[in-house]
Design goal:
mainly alpha; 5-stranded parallel beta sheet; 37 helices
């Protein structure tokens, strides 16, 4: 068994021959996105392993249940349903949660963790590796490609060997970077097409359509292109009908939507299929799919006859452009809506969306321009003719206005707006109406209360949110943060632990729990949390620094240096890592190398206190007290009066023969809180003794 493998060839049949020749009992799965959209191929792997895993190791499945089912709800037939959240149960028009860029990536990390742990258990019993060959990766959806990049990086090929089989086209940047480390084999083409019984172009077109237009046989592709368009459209209709009977959401998002789009009624059933597919992708957070479906749907929705559908396709595509970094395209789509339509509701919602772009995402932020756009949304909401719509949208847009005001620093005004929204909805709606949106209002109030230092009230709001939506773990993390601010680390860790049990592996969650564990002296627990984050996301700078500092604090100089070196390879010239590297070298008494590291850090940031202080120590140990004084003086200018820095500068002054300056520093330090009085008094005595000789 060797390492992971890449196979490149134009035809699937050719690639599969190479797969068979270079693997033993590999599970071969197809990843073409036209089959089942995001996670195509991944779902096949999970269908193959989950029944055995659930039967033999139910704890393994339970630990990853949310991630396993998130994008593939049909797998609930094998392992039961995921825990419900308010967002899952809310009607489509009430689902207003925004999915950030890391949401689906986190779910993919959970799936990877499951597969890695599954392979470890299989290896422990069979002494053999689990092999999976992912075929047609060049045609895989972005979510699948991202998961494969994570799997390649995290899976030990002696336990779980990954084969990526694809055409010659470049894959995503992340996947290409991971594949670069592994062997690539070419799949030579067969010399001739295999002889078959004579078939007409339309018969070959039927072969192509029945493959959901994934067959790469040139005869099938030629037949499809050469056949009568109406006859081909009829083939698409028939294929869609046959799939409808047992279709999962993955099939509906991809194959059925594609066939309806290319069938005999593209602007009718095609448009409806794309809209249903996009709505599912929106609810799940598959942002790349949302954009793709939205742009295709716009092409089938006549903006004059199907104004609402055209607007929905466009606005959802524009919103989904944001988490995948296509901000300019998002703004272009919103502006196109404003140019095309005069419908007040479209202008109202588009104004809100543009306000959110300016206050949350575009660089530089422009909160004043956001305020201008959001005022427009609020104004339109207030004059809508339907009283129920006027109430609902006025509250929604006042909540948006509160967010802008919070970003502008007007927290009290933001809180007034949010509390007004809550009061109005509580007075006018039944308890079971707009539950999700009302929970988000309560969330916004809790955040504002915390920002204003009203921690008891914020804690109470988060507790209420947890009772309302116990499986939405953001609330647990926020309540844990408040408990930390109150000094109650037991309560904070209880919330973090519960969130870790319920949630997919959000790196931020493990990082936060790790820092809390470190604060109470649980160094091993903190190390485990930091290490788990870096296994998932080795480029995470904050966690890399935190683990290096923890290792340094616990005397693991080799580990701290390894983290500093790895971090610097990923983030060249990063100041904190250079300083950590220098500190390790200083503790090893490799003073010249330490000085080089501190010099490098201070080249990047001449006022970085830790580098100044540690370079001063290095200068002092190399008998250059004057230079130590200079560095410590700059550090004091940066951080203000600090008794420890004053103590050290006084010692350096004393070594440099400046007794009066040393005494002044010691006396100054003695007047400050948290001063080391015993050491300062001892140094004063040394000063006095020195001055008498």
């Amino acid at each position: 068994m060797t390492g992971h493998l890449r196979i490149v060839g134009d035809r699937r049949a050719d690639r599969l021959r190479v797969v068979a020749a270079h693997t033993e009992k590999a599970l071969v799965v197809r990843c073409h996105q036209r089959l089942r959209g995001p996670y195509t191929g991944v779902d096949t792997v999970l269908r193959a392993v989950l029944p055995e895993a659930y039967r033999r190791w139910p704890d393994l499945v339970e630990n990853h249940r949310v991630a396993l089912l998130y994008g593939m709800p049909e797998l609930a037939q094998l392992i039961g349903p995921p825990p419900p959240t308010l967002a899952d149960e809310a009607p489509h028009e009430e689902r207003t949660r925004f999915f950030g860029a890391g949401w689906i990536r986190c779910m993919s990390q959970g799936i990877v963790s499951f597969l890695v742990e599954y392979a470890q258990r299989i290896r422990a019993e069979t002494a053999s590796a689990f092999e999976v060959a992912f075929e047609e990766v060049h045609a895989a959806e972005a979510t699948t490609r991202e998961l494969l990049a994570l799997l390649l990086r995290r899976a030990d090929p002696s336990l779980l060997r990954v084969v990526v089989s694809a055409g010659a086209d470049a894959l995503s940047d992340e996947l290409e970077a991971e594949l670069a480390a592994f062997t690539a084999l070419l799949a030579p083409p067969t010399c001739e097409e295999q002889p078959t019984a004579h078939q007409t172009p339309l018969q070959w077109a039927a072969v192509y359509v029945d493959s959901d237009c994934t067959d790469d046989d040139p005869r099938a592709i030629r037949g499809y292109r050469q056949s009568d368009p109406q006859a081909v459209a009829h083939l698409h209709d028939e294929r869609a009908e046959s799939l409808e009977r047992t279709a999962t959401w993955g099939v509906r998002m991809s194959a059925i939507a594609y066939h309806r789009e290319h069938g005999s009624d593209p602007t009718g059933s095609g448009r409806a299929a794309l809209l249903a597919a996009q709505r599912h992708a929106v609810a799940t957070g598959f942002s790349t799919a949302v954009v793709d479906l939205g742009l295709r749907g716009r092409g089938l929705a006549d903006p004059r006859l199907r104004e609402h559908d055209y607007w929905e396709f466009t606005r959802e595509a524009a919103a989904a452009c944001i988490p995948i970094g296509r901000l300019e395209q998002s703004m272009e789509l919103y502006q196109e809506l404003l140019r095309r339509f005069t419908n007040p509701k479209i202008h109202m919602m588009t104004s809100y969306s543009i306000a959110m772009l300016h206050t949350r995402f575009l660089q530089p932020r422009d909160h004043d321009l956001a305020l201008q756009w959001q005022h427009n949304a609020v104004a339109i909401a207030g004059i809508l003719p339907d009283p129920a719509e006027r109430r609902t949208f006025s509250v929604f847009h006042d909540n948006g206005l509160a967010l802008v005001e919070m970003h502008r620093g007007n927290r009290h005004r933001a809180l007034e707006l949010v509390e007004s929204c809550i009061t109005r909805l509580d007075a006018e709606l039944d308890d079971d109406q707009w539950v999700l949106h009302r929970s988000q209002l309560l969330y916004n109030r809790a955040r504002l209360l915390a920002a204003l230092g009203r921690l008891e009230e914020a804690h109470a709001d988060y507790t209420r949110l947890i009772d309302l939506d116990p499986y939405y773990t953001d609330y647990l993390s926020e309540r844990a943060r408040i408990s930390r601010d109150r000094g109650d680390f037991d309560a904070a860790l209880a919330d973090y632990d519960r969130a870790v049990r319920l949630a997919p592996p959000f790196p931020e969650l493990y990082y936060n729990r790790g820092t809390a564990r470190a604060r109470i002296g649980d160094h091993q627990g903190a190390l485990e949390d930091f290490s788990h984050v870096l296994e998932m996301e080795p480029r995470d700078l904050d966690t890399r620094i935190a683990r290096a500092e923890l290792r340094l604090e616990t005397g693991d100089l080799d580990g701290a240096e390894a983290d500093a070196d790895t971090g610097l390879a990923l983030h060249p010239g990063e100041v904190q890592l250079l300083c950590l590297k220098g500190t390790v070298l200083l503790q090893r008494e490799e003073l010249d190398k330490a000085l080089t590291a501190f010099d490098g850090a201070l080249e990047k940031d001449p006022h970085y206190p830790a580098a100044l202080i540690n370079r001063a120590v290095t200068h002092f140990q190399q008998s250059r007290p004057g230079r130590a004084v200079a560095d410590l003086s700059v550090a004091l200018d940066v951080v203000g009066d600090d008794p420890d820095i004053l103590l050290n500068r006084g010692i350096a002054h004393l070594a440099d023969g400046a007794t009066d300056l040393a005494l002044a520093d010691f006396d100054h330090a003695l007047a400050l809180p948290d001063a080391d009085i015993d050491e300062l008094q001892r140094q004063r005595r040394l000063c006095n003794a020195s001055s008498t000789h």
